[in-house]
């Protein structure tokens, strides 16, 4: 059994704060600062250039990738770290397009994170492809035989709605298309099974439920059936078969290593590696059950105490990720008032209050306090104060 | 006047080590570890998601870029940080290609860093362009009216040969082409003058002479004449005009901000920002003079003491960056023997010993010791031992 009291204790959580925004930025694992300090002192300062071999910096993107693989239903040697999620989306979709040279259509949905759509749009304009965007519930009906790539984020960043990865992947394959799954709101949040679903590509970030720190490196996974033949469009030297031969021509490295691009972010990978220690021994089915327990209790509590809020997430927990959205016409001001009272969620335009439940450290006390404070803010109209209406650049 | 004794003292340099590999990985500034520890504790752990505004993470890529701008002859608000150099090369070349839709030729040279060539090759295959690679000394003769982009690394990673940025840029413009300059071995090493040369795009890494740490973020500069019209191919949400409006369609942010892609690497940027403190007040002309003084003394010393070595760099310091290469048939083993004696340079295939001179911390004592040890290794044949012939993955 996973000991959630122990995993909660592994994080630095400021006193008095109820943090329900781990789906935006996870908190710092207590030992991450020491790990990074040691890396800087013993490896960068102490080993200098020899750290690439002696400290294993060169192989770190693969080793860290292996630790994430277990959490997303992938195998060893199938996941590699680097860059940002937007870059990994570009890399996956461009590689998939090259595998279907006679097709030019990328299908996505309006619940996808905007950056994924921007990336696909930029790619489509560059290579002469077409990006089609439909409503999330209409995706299945739009999987047509002209489709090259189905590009979806499994869990909607606003509503928490979870796509059926296996069913949509099967339908895409039936139509001769490939799938790219963005796991930004899935990795570390739900029980992802990439190999079981037969997905083709998956990408994700590590600063949300995986707690790697602000701007932590992204990951990419390629199904082993494609890994030895896929040809990346972003061809960097770290993905070369022999990076240190300094050949002038590109030759892809074996397997997933070819999806590396430039020099890996060594300091950031040290922080992420420390964060992944907390995941050791965590059973993903237990995690999923805990996530559902927390979000179900939150929905029930809010609906009982805050009749003016409208649930913006699927009611069926099987169709949700690990977050819950509620709508309110003054959602921005309500969230500011909540934050002022020490309950941190997120506002997402135009009118969504978003609450993430990270089973590693959120517990039923967090749920109870969030419900209580939210009900109080609404009952007393605390949101309707000038200081809560300022609009800043928030994430 | 720049006080090089003070800047040297700002770095952690292991006792007894003569480090001439700052052109591969710069050493750690002493205060960088504290800065990163404070950032993790006070910002990530202490502020959580609010760090994006309260700690200024969101604007950090621009603020750090401004600090680098001064070192490369660019203006404020013209440089932005993020990703890796390979990604920034892709971004610059793809953007330049879009500005010349009726032309499809990218010209580069065989002295360019292989990753730049791989990236251009991948891009060319993806968009249907042609990459032409000629010898460095033949670049000028190959600037023809069909050229879309001239993509060069200013300072050759093996020989240290420095291109004439102003002259080649003028020739490219005369032919109607745009220029992309890779400053990997220039930024912090020589007196770059991007605005004076009239360059169009420039990119660079920050883990070499700028000492940002292993895998530190890259930078990109776009000439202000293009910055408001250039259309990036890598369209990420951080480069959107209104990232937090979560529009479905991409609209580029004003100016250089549009060259941002995904979430910035906050921890790595803290280390880099600390490293840039050491550059405060450093005069680039003084730095360049110091670099020439060091490399001239090294060449003279080596040629006097090691007749079997062949200079692999231009003899005229005006045509060199801040590194010197010498050839030896057993260069790999020679470098291993040098490292065993505490003199750290670099081997570059097939037969080059590479020594970088970082004026911020290298001094004439380093030069004298390197010459002495190198001469001893060669005179006594110390390189010809089995342990120096193992070939590992080095960078």
UniProtKB/TrEMBL annotation, chains A, B:
The superkingdom of the source organism is: Bacteria
Where does the chain bind pyridoxal 5'-phosphate?
Answer: 85-86, 113-116, 153, 182, 185, 207, 237, 263
Q: What class of enzyme is it?
A: hydrolase
Which co-factors does it depend on? pyridoxal 5'-phosphate
**What pathway is this protein said to act in by its record?**
Cofactor biosynthesis; NAD(+) biosynthesis; quinolinate from L-kynurenine: step 2/3; Amino-acid degradation; L-kynurenine degradation; L-alanine and anthranilate from L-kynurenine: step 1/1
Entry EC no(s) = 3.7.1.3
Q: Note the Gene3D superfamilies from the entry.
A: Aspartate Aminotransferase, domain 1 (3.90.1150.10), Type I PLP-dependent aspartate aminotransferase-like (Major domain) (3.40.640.10)
Please give the residue positions where the record annotates the modification N6-(pyridoxal phosphate)lysine.
208
Purpose of the protein = Catalyzes the cleavage of L-kynurenine (L-Kyn) and L-3-hydroxykynurenine (L-3OHKyn) into anthranilic acid (AA) and 3-hydroxyanthranilic acid (3-OHAA), respectively.
Q: How does it assemble?
A: Homodimer.
Q: What is this protein called?
A: Kynureninase
Native organism = Paracoccus niistensis
Q: What is the lineage of its organism?
A: Bacteria, Pseudomonadati, Pseudomonadota, Alphaproteobacteria, Rhodobacterales
């Amino acid at each position: 059994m996973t000991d959630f009291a122990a995993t909660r204790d592994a994080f630095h959580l400021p006193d008095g704060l109820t943090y329900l925004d781990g789906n935006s930025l996870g908190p710092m694992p207590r030992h991450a600062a020491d790990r990074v300090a040691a890396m800087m002192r013993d490896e960068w300062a102490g080993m200098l250039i020899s750290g690439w071999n002696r400290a294993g910096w060169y192989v770190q993107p693969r080793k860290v990738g292996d630790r994430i693989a277990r959490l997303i239903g992938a195998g060893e040697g199938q996941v590699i770290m680097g860059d940002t999620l937007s870059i990994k989306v570009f890399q996956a979709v461009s590689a998939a397009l090259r595998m279907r040279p006679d097709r030019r259509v990328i299908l996505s949905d309006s619940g996808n994170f905007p950056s994924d759509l921007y990336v696909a749009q930029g790619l489509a304009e560059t290579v002469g492809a077409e990006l089609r965007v439909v409503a999330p519930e209409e995706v299945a009906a739009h999987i047509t035989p002209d489709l090259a790539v189905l590009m979806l984020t499994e869990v909607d960043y606003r509503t928490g709605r979870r796509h059926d990865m296996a069913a949509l992947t099967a339908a895409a394959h039936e139509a001769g298309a490939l799938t790219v799954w963005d796991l930004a709101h899935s990795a570390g949040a739900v029980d992802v099974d990439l190999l079981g679903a037969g997905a083709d590509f998956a990408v994700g970030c590590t600063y949300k439920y995986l707690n790697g720190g602000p701007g932590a490196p992204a990951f990419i996974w390629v199904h082993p059936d494609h890994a030895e033949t896929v040809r990346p469009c972003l061809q960097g030297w770290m993905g070369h078969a022999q990076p240190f031969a300094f050949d002038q021509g590109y030759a892809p490295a074996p397997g997933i290593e070819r999806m590396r691009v430039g020099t890996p972010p060594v300091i950031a990978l040290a922080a992420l590696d420390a964060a992944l220690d907390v995941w050791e021994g965590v059973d993903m089915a237990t995690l999923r059950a805990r996530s559902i327990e927390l979000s179900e209790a939150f929905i029930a509590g809010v609906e009982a105490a805050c009749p003016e809020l409208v649930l913006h997430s699927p009611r069926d927990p099987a169709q949700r990720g690990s977050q819950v959205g509620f709508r309110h016409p003054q959602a921005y001001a309500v969230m500011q008032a909540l934050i002022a009272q020490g309950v941190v969620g997120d506002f997402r335009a135009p009118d969504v209050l978003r609450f993430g439940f990270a089973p590693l450290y959120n517990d039923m006390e967090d749920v109870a306090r969030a419900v209580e404070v939210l009900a109080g803010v609404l009952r007393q109209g605390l949101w309707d104060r000038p200081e809560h209406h300022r609009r800043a650049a928030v994430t």
